Amino acid sequence: MTPATLIARDTDAANIEILPLQAALGAIVHCDDVRTLGERAFREIYHAYLDNLVLLIRNQHLNDDELMAFGRRFGELAPASPVHVGQKPRDEKHPELAIISNVIENGLAIGGLGDGEAVWHTDSSFFDLPPTASILYSLEIPPAGGNTGFANMYLALDTMPAPLCAQVAGKTIKHDKRYTAGGQLRHGYTGQEDLRTSPGTNHPIVRKHDETGHLALYLGRRPHAYVNGLPLQESESLLDALWAHATQPEFTWHHEWRVGDIVIWDNRCVMHRRDAFDPQARRILHRTQCKGTAVLAASRGTVSGRHARGHLHEA
Question: For residue 274, what is the domain's CATH number?
């Protein structure tokens, strides 16, 4: 058996316990070692992922091959983003693995995103096909800080005031390509480009989930975004209103990490953020993501999916 082989025996689905959180999204999954999950058990977990948007599985012990093998059960894995200047070269054995860390070894960062705050965002929304599932696994955690927040974009859309719904109907956002997730300017850009003509990928503000069929707000990142076709100041005002609505505390859940946690979330209908933490503390997490699908627009004139949590997947 190779290290990446996960299905060692068929764990009965009755051994899986899904406990939805008392929050706008999220569920804790109680199960055995994820490396031993049988197909029936995994299908229960996958349905819970679609229903609850974010899953937490605790007390796991995975090497990188095993993490990626688990990730592949959610879909084909996407190559990780290129490392940046000052970072340790990626392990060529694991091109789909990203290291999220502030640790410096021999003068080089072993991963990305450092120790600062990461503001609300959706991963890689500047891609034509943004990732579906993100799977993040914790190896070292600081004694305080570094918590990750998640926001339910189904619920944000369903509760949006009618005037704001009317403003976004049929509109798209340009998701800026000039900056990395950590805010670094990519090679070849000055940062002074006009937002109306700067390079980026256009996606509908209201997207249809390709598996559940429900509608969600799809905002990407606030910095450098632009609502296509609007005067710049109108675009800024509309984006400010959307973000103020979508990131209200009642749409969120915040996870306090422990070593051995796996968190899986659906980038198609979830935004996330991270708290800053002590730069002297160590934080190391490994992440893999599933290849994306086309961002589907809502039907003409439709801006609300009326999502009812817990009733998304087909029987």
Answer: 3.60.130.10
